[in-house]
Amino acid sequence: MSDGEIKIEGGEDAIPEHQETSGIDLNPNAQVCLQHLLRVWLGFERDLSTVPLLRRIDLGTYTIEDHLCLLRNLRQQVIEGSRWITRAASSFDRNHAEIRSIIISHAVDEHRDYELLEMDYVASGGKVEDIQGMERNIGTEALHGYLMYRSSRPNPIDLLGAMWIIEGLGEKMARSWAERIQQLTGLSEQSTNFMTYHGKNDADHMLRFYAMLDEVCVDQAATASIVKASKVVARLYRLQLEEV
Amino acid sequence: MSVYITSTGRFLPGPAISTEQVENVLGAVHGKPSLLRVQIQKANNIQTRHYAIDEQQQTTHSNTEMATNAAEQCLDRAFIARDKVGMLAVASTQGDLPAPGMASMVQAELGLAEIEILTTHGICSSSIMALKAAWNSLRLEEHEAALVVSSELASRLLKKQRYEAATNSTFAEKRIDFNTEFLRWMLSDGAGALLLQNKPAPKGISLRIDWVRGFSHAHAFPTCMSVGSAGRVEDQRTWQDYETYAEAEKAGALLLRQDVRLLDNILRMGVDGYLRLVEEGVSKPLEVNHFLCHYSSHHFRNKILDLLDAAGVGIPEERWWTNLYTRGNTGAASLFIMLDEFLRTDEVEIKNGEKVLCFVPESGRFNTTYMQLTVVK
To answer: Which residues does chain A have within 8 Å of residue B279's beta carbon, measured at their own beta carbons?
Structure first.
């Protein structure tokens, strides 16, 4: 929020992951699952505030160097993200054709997002070879390993929990990081395209998410597996941001 | 041992002040109307409020007097002799004196002899802290009755002279300093009091306290609402670290600030705590008949409703009740002032056995507190 420009009325910074849900009628298991997922998300979001790099966004001490570091460390996960999601799509059998379609179209939307990150990196003053040459950090290794393992299993519905966290973070980047980072560093919109672009698409993605949740989350076992995956991904994602 | 709220009282100083009159009371800084007032007031939607200062910014009631007046009304309405009150717990963001604790001052005014006292310090949730301590004291059977009072005199922090004296502050430097003005057009003065007893009142409505819970997230978040620092990242001094108090005031370290950018987190943590209580089976959304929420802005209300509805545990809007729009946001005093009017209003019918869920979030450093009451008639 910039001085003199007050955005406290209206819902532009409300929480997109639920804004579109007013007309959605989830089955009772999916509702309980959503209650748990909300708590996992809120805890994840709170705990991100303790990650040193991200705390500087809150405190106002975030620098261009911090931004370059963040982008370098996000890229590998974004590249690997397109891989596990396509792997997951191929692991769904024909009884899950609808979900498979949704996941494939999601993968098409995002599988080249890392190119945005590279452009942001260069616009922020970094060299493209530095971001392209960056290897996975310790957290990325763990996150990627877990997601590839789960997505290789038959009908990996628990990965809805992973999507919940990763989509939520895309929305959070657009809502509370992109503009703030520009203010703190003096960088332009060209340095935060990855963050803002994700926010624009994620509203659509969440609608698809609720449809999938309603379809597959039909008993306690499904709820438990989805919630578990969301917790693991939340913890490993934070590890990735701690290990920069 | 069950504990009941058997009587309530409140004190709102002076006349109800309309939105347009607010700047006449708090004063226009350097004679210039605020550029932010209308926008902020529109967002919080408070129509009338009360101040314990007059249009010359002279204090008309001390914080101790307001607390005492609310307590007197509460005791006058109670079916119990004053000497049965064994404990006095008082909550405020800022008493009249930095020391001693405000409970000492209120006890003296009330003339309650040899009682146990407690002063809780914090912001909005200090009222729940005081109430919980008193509730536990009765549950331990140390007393048969305890008086809990919360009182706020925010306007002394918000009057024009405070801002005019901050000549070397972020407020003086900027044309518009949203974080410094936000609470100026939000908070106002008042006091509320509750009497807790180990049995229901013989007549009228009592409220049994079912549970009181709180979750603080200070370990994770920076400070959001505060007095005592200059609000500059590079300057870690607090008001007592300056050479003189005058220097601290010039630097703006005595101004009340809200880091508005962080404010959204209090809503999120509020929802998290509520979902936690639902998950633990402590709170059962379907059983809640009345929801009394101290939220600091009109804006929050819609967002809370949306989020909880999505999770299937929303509380229908017709079960919400508040007097924030007519009595103002009185910080720690708000919930007690709300409970006092809730028991007397014709707007809602209150039936025996109904559940009342109360929620008091504090943005200071993100403390969320909850209480459930059961109506006993």
So the answer is: 35-36, 39
ipTM score: 0.89
pLDDT at B304 over 80: no
Q: pLDDT tens for residues A50-97? A: 999 999 999 999 999 999 999 999 999 888 888 899 999 999 999 999
Note the pLDDT of residue A20. 45
Of A173 and A11, the structure prediction assigns the larger pLDDT to A173
pLDDT, position A14? 35
Domain A36-242 coded CATH 1.20.910.10: yes
- 8 Å CB contact of A38 and B309: no
The band of A11, judged by pLDDT with boundaries at 50, 70 and 90, is very low
**C-alpha count within 13 angstroms, C-beta hemisphere, residue B45:** 14
Percentage of chain B lying above the pLDDT 90 cut: 88
**pLDDT tens digits, residue range B198-227?**
999 999 999 999 999 999 999 999 999 999
Note the pLDDT of residue A172. Answer: 85
- CA-wise closest residue to B16 among B43, B44, B48, B40: B48
- Point out the residue among B42, B221, B279 whose CB comes nearest to the CB of A9: B42
Write out chain A residues lying below 8 Å of B278, CB-based. Answer: 35
Nearest to B272 among A28, A43, A50 (CB): A43
- Record: contact A19-B217, CB cut-off 8 A: no
To 5 degrees, how large is the angle CA B300–CA B303–CA B307? 140
The residue with tokens 């917790």 is A231
CA A213 to chain centre: 17
Q: Which of B219, B233, B278 is closest, CB to CB, to A35?
A: B278
Which candidate in A21, A29, A39 is best for mutational testing of the B interface (most B CBs within 10 A)?
A39
Contact A39 B260 (CB under 8 A): no
Domains of chain B and any CATH numbers: 4-197 (3.40.47.10), 210-220+260-376 (3.40.47.10)
- Average of pLDDT values for B151-163? 97
Using DSSP, state whether B225 is helix, strand or coil. Answer: strand
Q: Are B293 and B259 in contact (CB under 8 A)?
A: no
Alpha helices in A20-112, H assignment, sequence order: 28-48, 52-59, 64-91, 97-110
Domain ranges across chain A:
36-242
Chain A residue closest in CA terms to B298: A9
The CA distance from A24 to the nearest CA of chain B, in Å, is 8
Q: What is the mean pLDDT of chain B?
A: 94
**Does A4 contact B222 at a Cβ distance shorter than 8 Å?**
no
**Start-to-end C-alpha separation, chain A:** 27
Q: Which residues of chain A neighbour B42 with C-beta distances below 8 Å?
A: 9
Task: Name the region of B247 (left: φ>0; alpha: ψ -120 to 50; beta: rest).
Answer: alpha
Task: Give the separation between CA A186 and CA A207, rounded to whole angstroms.
Answer: 34
The alpha-carbon gap from B274 to the nearest alpha carbon of chain A, in Å, equals 10
